[in-house]
């Protein structure tokens, strides 16, 4: 267990605006939160509240021509807002792994999974091609992906969304970055695989002290995984608290509503 408190990601007064032909719309207003080393921060809120836009702002993945991002985003003391594309490219994958909500977008369709995994590992480390391949195979096997050797020769379109997401988590495990952002990582998965993925994320943070920003609408996942929870609504944070505190004593009406809407666990489980 990691005890030293060390801030990995610090977001302060984040504002995101999008420019349309009809004027400017605000997507994110004054968002501030922090993720420490080895900590899992859950980001929750109903669909469309700005969770993905927040994570994409961190990684500079929003279209610069149409969106305006202001505030401070600090990764291990380095300011990301205003950082050049070249420097940002070296941060993506190495310092921040991003498990995208739509995993198909994070792979290049014309290259095999193996090519992309091995190239990513080699771009950020000094291992040989053979070592990178062994690393990739091992990581895929750990994610319960069948026949890793065959998988390496497959193209992204040949895999399901859930499989691609697991490939991305496997990649993150290889790189052990200081920060991992997982956007709805378990939504497309069956219960068994979901459990496995969550266990794996937990293992990554314990072994490497990876700070994890876990975006999900699944409050069961939050209860099981998160240390700290940030609740968003319409581009703003309405509440942030430690996980137990949030579940036991939600302060904001919106949080209360979210908690009330979750499916209840039957007191007696049918055998
Ligand atoms: N790339 C983008 N550019 C401009 N607006 C966007 C973009 N992505 C999402 N939006 C808009 O921003 C709002 C928040 O969306 P999003 O962050 O995807 O919500 P969530 O992930 O919480 O479901 C929505 O109104 C959505 O239409
Ligand atoms: Mg989203």
Descriptive notes:
The structure is a single chain. The chain has helices at residues 51-58, 85-91, 113-124, 129-142, 148-152, 161-175, 191-208, 219-225, 243-248, 253-261, and strands spanning 7-20, 23-36, 40-44, 67-75, 78-79, 96-99, 179-183, 211-215, 228-233, 236-242. The protein is an alpha/beta fold and 271 residues long. The model has no long low-confidence stretch (mean pLDDT 89). Residues 51-52, 101, 183 line the site of magnesium ion. Adenosine-5'-diphosphate binds next to helix 1.
Brief description of this entry?
Helix content is 37%, strand content 26%. It is of the alpha/beta class.
Element layout with pairings:
Elements: E1 7-20, E2 23-36, E3 40-44, H1 51-58, E4 67-75, E5 78-79, H2 85-91, E6 96-99, H3 113-124, H4 129-142, H5 148-152, H6 161-175, E7 179-183, H7 191-208, E8 211-215, H8 219-225, E9 228-233, E10 236-242, H9 243-248, H10 253-261
Parallel strand pairs: 3-8, 3-9, 6-7, 7-8
Antiparallel strand pairs: 1-2, 1-4, 4-5, 9-10
Helix pairs in contact: 3-4, 3-6, 4-6
This protein binds adenosine-5'-diphosphate and magnesium ion.
Adenosine-5'-diphosphate (ADP) binds next to helix 1.
